[in-house]
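Reminder to self: tokens first, then the designed residues, so the page reads top to bottom the way the pipeline ran.
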């Protein structure tokens, strides 16, 4: 029994490594900037089939087929994310380097806004993949999730930071597992929260 479980775990490890390589490869295929978001959304879609339906057969052909379908939508979604983060980052840089009393007083509010934005962005791709909603509905729902589940969101952000640190210390982990494991944790967290909401709505 233990041997079978170990074999199953090793199979999952190999599949996650393979998915991570596909994610990195198709990110480079889109010249990085334009490939990152389609590759990320495609990975989320495949992980959704694994978490929700138990499907684990991920092929390069399936990845490429899905990649093409979500290319424009995912880049549109990603551009909005970058615009939001970019504007907050620029504002934070301005208030951080300025010695004006007004700007100094704005440092903490802008920092909190950045943390809140990151909390919201954690749910943007899972919601888009899970429901296929409009851009406005996706970001609105993501904001609601971040506000409704601050503890769970903080845990996910902490895990993502931990994974980034591990990847920095061990580049091989970055190559084979950082992306796929991060996306799995984010999506798994969202699915569990969605199940919790569905149960509460049925009571």
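Designed residues (203 positions):
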């Amino acid at each position: 029994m233990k041997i079978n479980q170990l074999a199953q775990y090793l199979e999952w490890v190999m599949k996650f490594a393979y998915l991570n390589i596909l994610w990195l490869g198709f990110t480079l295929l889109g010249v990085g900037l334009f490939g990152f978001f389609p590759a990320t959304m495609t990975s989320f879609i495949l992980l959704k089939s694994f978490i929700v339906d138990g499907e684990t057969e991920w092929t390069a052909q399936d990845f490429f087929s899905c990649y093409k379908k979500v290319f424009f939508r995912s880049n549109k979604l990603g551009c909005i994310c970058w615009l939001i983060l970019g504007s907050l980052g620029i504002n934070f840089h301005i208030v951080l380097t300025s010695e004006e009393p007004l700007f100094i007083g704005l440092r903490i509010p802008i920092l909190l806004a950045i943390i809140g934005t990151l909390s919201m962005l954690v749910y943007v791709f899972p919601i888009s993949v899970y429901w296929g909603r409009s851009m406005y509905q996706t970001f609105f729902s993501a904001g609601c999730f971040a506000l409704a589940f601050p503890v769970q969101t903080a845990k996910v952000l902490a895990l993502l930071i931990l994974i980034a640190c591990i990847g920095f210390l061990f580049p091989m982990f970055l190559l084979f597992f950082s992306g796929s494991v991060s996306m799995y944790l984010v999506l798994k967290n969202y699915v569990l929260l969605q199940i919790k909401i569905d149960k509460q709505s049925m009571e």
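The chain has a mean pLDDT of 87.
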